[in-house]
């Protein structure tokens, strides 16, 4: 009993500790301890009408705790994750287990920074190396190893990394693959301040990465010659390169409000499961140009990626695992409920595309602008596959495997449209400041076959509105309404959500999505959701009840499948 | 009864320890390298405002409530600066997919904030931030006196009250 009360008091103390902490973090000598905690749980109810299956353990949760200690230049931290019985979407992608898979110690002064343990890192735009995490998607490809950053002179930045990529909750002990890389960046404006004073920006950078992976098994495949005879062929284990190299060079140039950025990356000699084991080099080019002045901004970008999927293990197929690099999806990202399933998925092996966004603010206090101005946004993006001509060997063999694969002319758009978005958005606040309205129209073309693996093209018109009304200084209502009109895929849908907020603590919302145009009558279902959240400083507690449609969840062009579900969810996040 | 007493005693003791610590020392921002919009490296230890209060906001161009919050403050910002001398740092966690669009976006909205980029979420991690929008207020000594996550319309009033109380001291 004594013990029990001790435990209770420790728990209570910790609780009070965290309450106190919103004003001050915890000092130990000159050091400081901080951290954050997240819990996301759900009680699942089977529902055959939406395809929510009956699962063996109905209560599931994801939880983690981060602890960080820092003392002047020194810091150390660890994250404990409990995903042993995770939410079913995480189970589906294999993110299941528990333990401390992230811990590090780091020392930094103005000349050098050294890290041992797990770390996240990005070289340039990430075309060759990007170790990052996205908790919502269940992606964590941190590197376990060491990192050194050196600043020999202000404006010159050098980095070196050496490590093994995290693979969910698997052990690192039996891993035989690792990643090494160096990056250098020179910022001329920082070395010669006169450049910066004149309004110029000039930066150049370059990096080199090498992945090591020893293969012990040969790959057996079939060759189909024209006369319908097929023979077995083999890539012997020693023909798989143990070292796969990639490099990139980048440049940024700016003058006053104008700026261009460019990066070219190349990968050599990487037969892997995603490219049918061809030996062709990979390459990527990313360009962006922006111009901005008060009340007006324009941003245009271009991307081409060819055979640039770069992973720690060549046989890995899981979409969220072991990527060394990240080819960005440069299209504009929307958070609209109804087109969540039609978000563009970045195609590191095969895409060429452009993106253009223009922002304009009709000036404040003008006739059209009103007292607070009216914001207009225009957006256009279009992505195709790249043009490919199979090499002679690939044609004779009836398979590209083991050959150079194909040739491709660099700036040519391929025959298949992958994604297109034409969008227009108006945002206006009315003179009494109580009402605010965002109206948007998008025409989306989405290649279901390439991006989701089932036949067809979805062409849809989306009209969406977001209306807020401030009742008093603290009470506000927000109404979101959307209509997707399409004859393709699952047909048209409408969505509405009403949110009431009582600043700064309470949010209550109720929403419904109705797929009224589904070609299958029995699938014309309502997906309703009721939720309530309480926020107190850095703590957020939310309850929600409702149905989730089967679909995909995308964050920045990286997506994962979301199974249909029905039930009661609880989420708690806090930082201290 | 004894157990209850022990519990209460331990609680009281620990509370008083923490209370003392609160009086003693408030924490400052971690020192992390960010980028400015003109491409230089900027360390968060250089976030300063001549002894006047500072607001630090973590946001992203794809985050609707973040933008609603920054818009709401933008309306009042001129008045706030005149009355309290406050300075706002808006740190974007947009990564390489969208970070090139931050500058045109900010200028398009006509925001007067100091905008910085945290392209691989290093600052977000060091601050233990789970989700954006996140906001904290620093007093004249650069110490964190208030933190908040998410945005509800009207919460800018609370922000303003805190800044005003900091200027009075």
Description of the molecule:
- The complex is a heterodimer of chains A (576) and B (169).
- With 576 residues, chain A is mainly beta.
- Chain A contains six helices and 35 strands.
- The longest helix of chain A has 19 residues, at 2-20.
- Chain B is α/β, with parallel strands linked by helices and 169 residues long.
- Chain B has one domain (27-168): Glutaredoxin (3-Layer(aba) Sandwich), CATH 3.40.30.10.
- Chain B is 42% helix and 20% strand.
- In chain B, α2 (64-84) runs parallel beside α5.
- The radius of gyration of chain B is 18 Å and the shape is globular.
Helical percent range of chain A? under 10%
Proportion of residues in β-strands of chain A: over 45%
CATH hierarchy class name of chain B? Alpha Beta
Q: What is the count of helical runs of chain A?
A: 6
Instruction: Tell me what portion of residues of chain B adopts beta-strand conformation.
Output: 15-25%
Sequence of strands across the biggest β-sheet of chain B: 2-1-5-4-3-6-7
Total number of domains of chain B: 1
Fold-level CATH name of chain B:
Glutaredoxin
Report, as a whole number of angstroms, the end-to-end distance of chain B: 46 Å
> Structural class of the helices, strands and pairings of chain B?
alpha/beta
CATH H-level superfamily title of chain B = Glutaredoxin
Overall helicity of chain B: 40-55%
Q: What is the residue-mean pLDDT of chain B, rounded to a whole number?
A: 83
Spans of chain B with pLDDT under 50 lasting ≥5 residues? 11-24
Shape of chain A, please?
globular
Could you tell me the number of beta strands of chain A?
35
